[in-house]
Amino acid sequence: MGFAAEVKEELCKVPLKRRCCAVAEAYGVLLFCNTFQPQQVRIITESRSFKARLPHLFRKAFRVDFDTVPPPGEGKGTFLIDQPEKMHAIYQAFGLEWPGSVSLHINLALLEDEHDRKAFLRGAFLAGGAITDPMKGFHMEIDTTHYSVGRETPALLQEMGFEPKLACRKGSQIIYFKQSNHIEDILITIGAPAAAMTVMTAKRARDIRGSVNRQVNCDSANLDKSVEAAQEQLDAIRTLEEAGVLPTLSGKLQYAARLRLDHAELSLAQLAALCDPPLSKSALNHRLHKLVDLAKDLETAQAAPQEQSS
Fold first, then answer.
1. Do 148 and 247 share a domain, yes or no?
2. What is the DSSP code string of 43-70?
């Protein structure tokens, strides 16, 4: 079962206690479902739990049964109402005259109470919602083919303290969230706290993984720098040794050179720990850097006569 199916399954466990909440949830379903016209209601879903909830929801909200229900089982199923008396009952519940065109606007008179607004959004998500597996990314959306509903729903969400985004896709209005904390809040609001916890856990896991990756990358970069520095020091020491300069240097520089030659694989900190008497990492680094500078000076001096002769 995908994460979106898990969310809808959790939402469908919210009990249908008040008739006003059932009407509000059914209102959300109808404004975000496949077809809501004076002649017909058609809802297509592949959610097994939503299939089980719809007949109870419409009976509670409108006291009507579907004319056509899909057979039980997996896959998409279609719920249909087209009998005039049932369409009339649905219109009456929304305070609309029938027959006539459905006002494809959100009737806020039906959503005055907070619990009704939450139920409306729950129905909207059940009918037209989708959500990405939080381990892969953060995206939650509901879409409707009704332009006005698509424009009014974000305003309703903003009144409730949310910050939705709006986009158009193939003639549909898409209301969506991309930030994990916004998705968590909306899931809790519509009745899916367990799904919200899953999003929170995924966010923490991704943050930890990102932090570990950054640390590994940082360590790798530091290791590369250490290896390059050690190789530069070794090359400098060998240059000084081959030119017969190394024995003429101070005892401190000769000691640092011998230490590096004998322990080419060690980091600067590890090398400093071997010094006797003890030597700080900074002091040892200064001596090794001095050897590198001397080798560069020597190479420059050796190259000058060749350039003059040429």
1. no
2. EEE--HHHHHHHHHHHHHHHS---SB-P
| 74 and 161 in a common domain | yes
Q: Under a CB-based contact definition with an 8 Å cutoff, are residues 291 and 248 in contact?
A: no
> pLDDT truncated to tens, each residue of the chain (310 aa)?
799 999 999 999 999 999 999 999 999 999 999 989 888 999 999 999 999 999 999 999 999 999 999 987 778 999 999 999 999 999 888 877 777 655 578 888 889 999 999 999 999 999 999 999 998 999 999 999 888 899 999 999 999 999 999 999 888 999 999 999 999 999 999 999 999 999 999 888 877 877 777 777 777 777 778 878 888 898 989 999 888 988 999 999 999 989 888 888 788 888 889 888 888 989 999 999 999 999 898 888 887 766 565 5
> Are residues 257 and 161 part of one domain?
no
Residue 44: strand pairing partners: 78
Domain count, the chain: 2
Half-sphere exposure of 24 (CA within 13 A, CB side): 22
**CATH, residue 68:** 3.10.28.10
Cβ pair 270, 217 in contact under 8 A: no
Which residues are within 8 A (CB) of 15 and not within 5 positions of it... i.e. 6 or more apart? none
Domain range holding 261?
Answer: 221-297
Any domain includes 213? no
161 φ/ψ sector (left φ>0, alpha ψ -120 to 50, else beta): left
> To which residue do tokens 């904390």 refer?
181
Nearest to 192 by CA among 13, 31, 43, 66: 13
Q: Is 206 exposed, middle or buried (0-12, 13-18, 19+ CB in 10 A)?
A: middle
Answer yes or no: are the C-beta atoms of 227 and 281 closer than 8 Å: no
- pTM as predicted: 0.69
Domain co-membership, 43 together with 187: yes
